[in-house]
Amino acid sequence: MEVSTKESDRFIGLQAGAAQFRVSAIGEDKCNLSSYNRRDYFKVSLILKGSSELMYANRGIEINGPALVFTTPIVPYSWEGTGELPVGYFCLFDNEFLHTGGRMESLQESSLFKVGGDPVYFLDQDQAGYLESIFARMRLEVDTDYLYKYDIIRNQLNLIIHEAIKMQPAVAYFTPPNAAARIAKLFLDLLERQFPVDSPRNTVAFKKAGDYANQLSVHVNHLNAAVQEITGKSTTTHINERIVVEAKSLLIYTDWSVADIAFSLGFEYASYFNNFFKKHAELTPLAFRRVL
């Protein structure tokens, strides 16, 4: 039984500006986010009761009591139910939501969301009650018509973040069965999360096998061996094939310059991209665009 991120997958719509935030009870089908994309949104979950396992990168974490969980759009994760369904709240927001409020530190580099950090904070009853009251207030506030409600919610979210910073995670990890298959799936999920590229200003963050290994907290040799064993292709082959597919799509469906496409796909110089594309597509980018 999987509870994974299905509750957030129902969120299909994003309003602009300060409304880049949603809060909900777990399992509640109420709020809508019209262009919700897990690439962009951080998630804070408050688990009050229930039994589940958080599969986070290549680690598994058993959660059988109150816990506060921070997940980042960069690291693949899922929830797997092991008993009673979780009860609690979760909220989604992007980096800009807190940045607008004067928080200058990138969430991706913060102690709570940093890749390789501990995402789970176990709570005592007093902490759980306090955090539940904050989530409940956010849940009520988000439905009001008050002009400055997102300023209030931003302050409430900061209270949750600071409460977590004061706590020291006490997390017991386990190694999931069939580790090679899981690592390969995590790699493919993380690869796919980088696409589609929707703006020349947004560059692909991970282009080499070592980049993915760092994000998944595994040695690059371990990653390469797992991907080769499970898929029959090397990590580099998967990366190159996906970049070529994206490059062709951008050449066909956008009017971006070759230099813009090269930059968005992680190439420092357009000449590097030209050589890469010609090697894999047997045409230069401009020649490919002309024959369409």
UniProtKB/TrEMBL annotation:
Species annotation: Dyadobacter arcticus
The protein, known as: AraC-like DNA-binding protein
Record-linked PANTHER family: ARAC-FAMILY TRANSCRIPTIONAL REGULATOR, TRANSCRIPTIONAL REGULATORY PROTEIN
Keyword set, alphabetical order: DNA-binding, Transcription, Transcription regulation
InterPro entries the record matches: Homeodomain-like_sf, HTH_AraC
Domain HTH araC/xylS-type intervals: 211-291
Keyword field contains Ubl conjugation: no
Record carries keyword DNA repair: no
